[in-house]
Structure formats: structure tokens, C-alpha cells
Design brief:
Layout (H helix, E strand, L loop, with lengths): L2 H4 L3 H4 L1 E8 L2 E8 H14 L3 H16 L5 H18 L9
Antiparallel strand pairs: 1-2
Helix pairs in contact: 3-4, 3-5
């Protein structure tokens, strides 16, 4: 029943810590590699680096709601939201010439 989940590569759920700047402050964020890969995809789609995307997101959250109580959880939920949006977008057909 859960083979698709239980059989995944352990590297996906290993955690990695990355150091970056949020609003000029040096910090580190620890996330599972699958979330880092998704954040890298989001940043690439937006034409920025992952640290720039994360810093921009943090700034926008600060502006809208104040300091988030758990920024890493917000990042994980942003990844889920990105996947939800990606799944709901209609597939683009590529015509062979």
C-alpha cells in the first residue's frame, strides 16, 4: 500500500543545512533535500537564486503578517503550495514539427 512512499530514496528525506542572508542577517535553514529541490525549482522558475527567493519570501511575509513563528514550516508549506499550483495548471501540448 505505501510502497511508493516507503520505497523512496533516503537521500530525499535526509536534511541539509544551508546558510543564507535574510534581510541582511546571516542565518541557517535546515530542510529535507526534497524541499530544497522544490525551492530550487521555484527560484529557477522565477529567474532568481534560491537564497534570493527565500529572502524575498521572508520580506513579504514580514510585511504582511510580521515575523513567522516557524519559517522552515512556512517554506515546507510554500513547497506544497507550489506543487498544488503546478498540478492544477493545464498541461501544455508541444506540437512536433
Amino acid at each position: 500500500m505505501c510502497e511508493v512512499f516507503a520505497g523512496q530514496d533516503p537521500e530525499r528525506y535526509c536534511s541539509t543545512t544551508r546558510r543564507l542572508r535574510l534581510n541582511g542577517q546571516s542565518t541557517s535553514i535546515r530542510l529535507e533535500n526534497a524541499f530544497w529541490a522544490t525551492l530550487d525549482d521555484i527560484a529557477a522558475r522565477d529567474g532568481v537564486t534560491t537564497p534570493v527567493f527565500i529572502s524575498t519570501l521572508h520580506s513579504e511575509v514580514l510585511e504582511r503578517r510580521g515575523e513567522p513563528s516557524n519559517f522552515t514550516s512556512l517554506l515546507r508549506c510554500a513547497c506544497l503550495k507550489f506543487m498544488e499550483i503546478s498540478c492544477s495548471e493545464p498541461a501544455t501540448a508541444i506540437a512536433a514539427e
